[in-house]
């Protein structure tokens, strides 16, 4: 006697971009109105009207699609679903599917009582791609959300080793070798305890035959007190996320390997804790960088650009064809862009235009700010080659990027200044670490 496999009943979710697409039978039903979308649901089907976003530009339309995917997931409990997508040519259903999957994330590692998870699944043909994206997003979020008493420079390195299975661990530099070869990284981390000592770590993608050398550089400040230019209590409260650039770079590197992108990819992690002790660097200290220029410390809280500078020099020495650095670098960028939109700087116009186009298509926001050379005089120093911070309260994100550009020379370079954190909003109750820009950067690396 043979047993028949029970067929799973799948509930259709129909997504409409305009009222004209909605079947006549549903013209008179009452949709529940929400911010950016409307929904009608029964036990047999779900209809979503997103005509409210139809007039948005391509970037915001795709970005909202991800958020709506998260919101709709919360309406769907313990069932199996599939999608009827009546979209527009400038949007991608995979973005909605990713948003749906991201809604399942919870960070409960340090909660005694954990929430019960409900089962809800969308059946689609993009599972491998969406699952890979989620794996990198969830890893990045977990790493950022883990507090600094548990996650220091060494722990970030060990975590990356476990996660990046398709990468060779080239090695790390620490101690006296770090002080000699990467003096700015060493200086920023020298005030930390022995178990939080600074590290410069390198990973390289295995099994590639590409001659295109791409370097990812992540700012990994496991906690930032501000150093002797100490932050306020409020300013310090989220500083476990100051390694968000490194977390995002690790997540991006994993995606490059998962998608089989044929590129000679190197990941550099600058891992430090910016602490206060008798060994901490001081304002007015002058330190010789790996590149050879002398940097006056105008502010010990402008530490991220210091550690990135030595890593950028190293990448240039290795004849990189493209350098991408990611860093939670400046509050000035957050003031200008808010927390959702990372700013980026680029020294190559064609590369910048390509990234803008990809950002729009993926709905993964990255917004270009200028490398405004006229502000470079703000970095002038009376006693060294230049300072690590501008002498004005204006244009802080730009002067930080101009500082980094001094070490880039002529190599094509993209600098991402991101928040790496999200707050609860009208689509999701999640607050915590966030992956930002990695989908757009993955597509850029594919096309490079």
Summed up:
With 448 residues, the protein is an alpha/beta fold.
If you had to describe this structure to a student in words, what would you say it looks like?
There is one protein chain. By secondary structure, the protein is α/β, with parallel strands linked by helices. The protein is built from 13 helices and 19 strands. Helix 8 packs across helix 13 and helix 11 packs across helix 13. The N and C termini lie far apart (58 Å). The relative contact order is 0.13.
Q: Give the total of beta strands.
A: 19
| Strand composition percent | 15-25%
Low-confidence stretches at least 5 residues in length (pLDDT < 50)? 1-5
| Class inferred from helices and paired strands | alpha/beta
Helix content bin: 25-40%
Number of domains: 2
CATH homology-level superfamily of the largest domain:
Zn peptidases
Shape: elongated
Question: Secondary-structure map with pairings?
Answer:
Elements: E1 10-16, E2 32-34, E3 37-41, E4 46-49, H1 58-73, E5 80-86, H2 93-102, E6 121-122, H3 127-145, H4 153-163, E7 167-173, H5 175-181, H6 183-189, E8 199-205, E9 213-224, H7 233-236, H8 244-258, E10 264-274, E11 286-288, E12 294-296, H9 304-317, E13 322-327, H10 331-337, E14 343-346, H11 349-362, E15 367-368, E16 386-387, H12 396-408, E17 413-417, E18 421-422, E19 432-433, H13 438-447
Parallel strand pairs: 1-4, 1-5, 5-6, 9-10, 9-13, 12-16, 13-17, 14-15
Antiparallel strand pairs: 2-3, 3-4, 7-8, 8-10, 11-12, 14-17, 18-19
């Amino acid at each position: 006697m043979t047993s028949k496999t029970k067929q799973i009943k799948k509930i259709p979710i129909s997504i409409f971009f305009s009222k004209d697409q909605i079947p006549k039978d549903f013209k008179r039903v009452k949709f529940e109105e929400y911010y950016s979308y409307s929904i009608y649901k029964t036990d047999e089907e779900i209809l979503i009207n997103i005509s409210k976003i139809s007039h948005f530009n391509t970037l915001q339309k795709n970005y909202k699609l991800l958020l709506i995917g998260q919101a709709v997931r919360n309406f769907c409990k313990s069932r199996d679903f599939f999608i009827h997508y009546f979209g527009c040519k400038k949007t991608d259903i995979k973005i909605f599917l990713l948003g749906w999957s991201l809604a399942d994330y919870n960070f409960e590692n340090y909660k005694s009582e954990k929430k019960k998870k409900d089962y809800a699944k969308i059946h689609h043909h993009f599972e491998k791609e969406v699952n890979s994206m989620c794996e990198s997003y969830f890893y990045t979020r977990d790493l950022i959300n883990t507090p600094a008493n548990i996650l220091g420079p060494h722990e970030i390195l060990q975590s990356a080793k476990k996660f990046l299975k398709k990468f060779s661990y080239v090695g790390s530099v620490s101690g006296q070798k770090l002080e000699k070869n990467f003096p700015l990284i060493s200086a920023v981390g020298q005030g930390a305890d022995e178990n939080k000592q600074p590290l410069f770590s390198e990973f390289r993608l295995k099994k590639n035959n590409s001659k295109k050398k791409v370097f990812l550089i992540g700012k990994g400040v496991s906690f930032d007190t501000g150093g002797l230019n100490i932050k306020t209590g409020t300013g310090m409260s989220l500083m476990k996320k100051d390694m968000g650039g490194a977390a995002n770079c690790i997540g991006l590197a994993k995606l490059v390997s998962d998608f089989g992108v044929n590129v000679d990819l190197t990941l550099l992690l600058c891992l430090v804790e910016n602490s206060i002790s008798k060994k901490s660097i001081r304002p007015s200290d002058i330190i010789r960088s790996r590149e050879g220029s002398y940097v006056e410390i105008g502010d010990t809280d402008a530490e991220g650009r210091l550690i990135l500078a030595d890593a950028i020099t190293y990448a240039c020495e290795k004849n990189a064809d493209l350098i991408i650095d990611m860093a939670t670098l400046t509050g000035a960028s957050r003031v200008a862009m808010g927390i959702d939109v990372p700013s980026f700087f680029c020294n190559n116009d064609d590369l910048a235009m390509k990234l803008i186009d990809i950002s729009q298509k993926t709905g993964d926001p990255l917004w270009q700010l200028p490398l405004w050379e006229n502000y470079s005089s703000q970095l002038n120093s009376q006693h060294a080659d230049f300072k690590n911070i501008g002498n004005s309260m204006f244009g802080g994100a730009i002067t930080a990027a101009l500082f980094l550009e001094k070490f880039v020379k002529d190599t094509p370079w993209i600098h991402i200044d991101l928040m790496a954190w999200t707050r609860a909003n009208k689509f999701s109750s999640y607050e915590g670490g966030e992956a930002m820009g990695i989908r757009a950067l993955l597509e850029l690396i594919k096309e490079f």
